[in-house]
Amino acid sequence: MNALAARRRHPAAILFLLLLGLLITGSAYAAFAPKAATAAEATADQITLGKQLFASNCASCHGKNALGTEQGPNLAGVGAASVDFQVGTGRMPMAEPGVQAPRGKDVTFDDEKISALAAYIASLAPGPAIPDAKYTSGEGGDPGKGGMIFRTNCSMCHNSAGAGGALTRGKYAPSLMGVDGKYIYEAMETGPQSMPVFNDNNISPESKNDVIAYLKAMNETGNPGGMALGSLGPVPEGLFAWVFGLGILVGAAYWLGQKGA
Known about the structure:
Elements: H1 2-8, H2 13-32, H3 44-57, H4 59-62, H5 79-88, H6 111-124, H7 143-153, H8 155-158, E1 165-166, E2 172-173, H9 181-190, H10 205-221, H11 234-260
Antiparallel strand pairs: 1-2
Helix pairs in contact: 3-6, 5-6, 5-9, 7-10, 9-10
C-alpha cells in the first residue's frame, strides 16, 4: 500500500502546494490590506516643470539630483506627500538653517508648482503619495475615536488639545489648531522632523480622518470653560494661581495690617 502511494505522489507536488499557498496568501493580503490613499498619477509635463523648479530653488541644499548634501537630506523616497507638506506649509524652502523648520507665514509656490515639485520627487523613488481628499476633510469621521487615537499616539508631544509643546534641543511640537486636514494627514504619513511615521499600516486612512475630525471639533468648540491659558495644562494654570492668587492674598494681608494700625 505504501509503495502504491509513493508511486502516485509526483515529485513536484510539494513545490506546487507551496506556490499555491503563496498565491492564496498574496491574494488575501491584496484584498484585505489597508488601501493607501493615493492621488492621481503625475504627468510628464508636471515632472519636467518640477525638475526645473527644483534645480532653481532646492538643489543648492538637497543636491543637483536631490540625493542630499551637508545642508539638506536625500529626498529620494520621501514621496509626494512629504514635498506637499513641507512646501505647502511654507516650511520649505527654508529661510535659514536651524534645528527645525518653522511653519511659514507665506508659501513660496502656488498649488500648481507645488504639485509639480511633488511629482518630480515622487518620480525619483517610491514614497507616500498625496492623500485622497475624502480622507483629509474630517467629514464622516468619528471625533470620539479620533480623540482616543490622538491621545494614545500624539498627545505626549502636541498635548491633548493639540496646542503643541516643547521638545528637546530647541525643537518643538507645533500647534495643530487651524491646520488644514491634508497637512495633518501628510504629517502622520511622512513623519516630518521629530515626528514618528504613522503609515496606513499603523493608522488606516479612515482612522486618520477620525483624528482630523477630532482636531476640527476641538478647534470649533473653543474654550467654553473660560481662559485657555495656551491649553498647556497645569503649568500655566499653576503660574496663574501663584502670581494672581498669592498677589491678592499679600495685598489683602497688607490692607488688613494697615487698617489695624
